[in-house]
């Protein structure tokens, strides 16, 4: 398949684009395929569906037997996954053999030249509409590419394309990478962009009520983001901004209007290593209440 290609936010608005779907033969895997197809259709991209299998460590079998059995089974599962995607989207399937599942997903996504990894949120550790398993959790704390997480049951929504991208932005270092990805993605797809500045009391531990100065600063911040996005996006792409307020992050996000086909884009924690993901506490709180796909963007993408 060729060598590894490093992807950047620039790949989101021109040229060939690949969406890598990390697949398991589970309902969560089907959710991931549905989201991967929606993103690919929206972004005019190809879907690469991949499965990671462990190496042959089974002493009870002759060398190679375990690989053959597992690879044959994976081939069947991947064929079923391919059948979930309509013919309007180019699809390829891939099997990788790695000791680490999360590490294998990242390596395979980079090998095929993907611009984003898609995974299903149904697994262990219940978290609102999501139920993040250990592999997805590892991806959200180490991947060098944006990772999109499909909420539980997404396969049943039947929304073919993204309706609107909501970009949640703060003032800390790293927000530029999120805005850059949002602008380039919306420019490529021609879908509306909503910029959100979040104000919540649990982000201001010393406060017991809404700080009017903080709200005013958030409004000005949203206006600056709006001006920047409008200046860079063509007039045919609608851009709006809002300030989400509430006693908690969950309440503030819940007050926003969400529709089928919406996607939320968030950045990584300031604890993230350069060009790596690290799901921050604010994004984790959002996951508890939003029932739309979430895309987490690495620092300094």
From TrEMBL:
UspA domain boundaries: 19-150, 175-298
Family listed: Belongs to the universal stress protein A family.
Organism: Tsukamurella paurometabola (strain ATCC 8368 / DSM 20162 / CCUG 35730 / CIP 100753 / JCM 10117 / KCTC 9821 / NBRC 16120 / NCIMB 702349 / NCTC 13040)
InterPro entries: Rossmann-like_a/b/a_fold, UspA
Residues of the signal peptide: none
Protein name in the entry: UspA domain protein
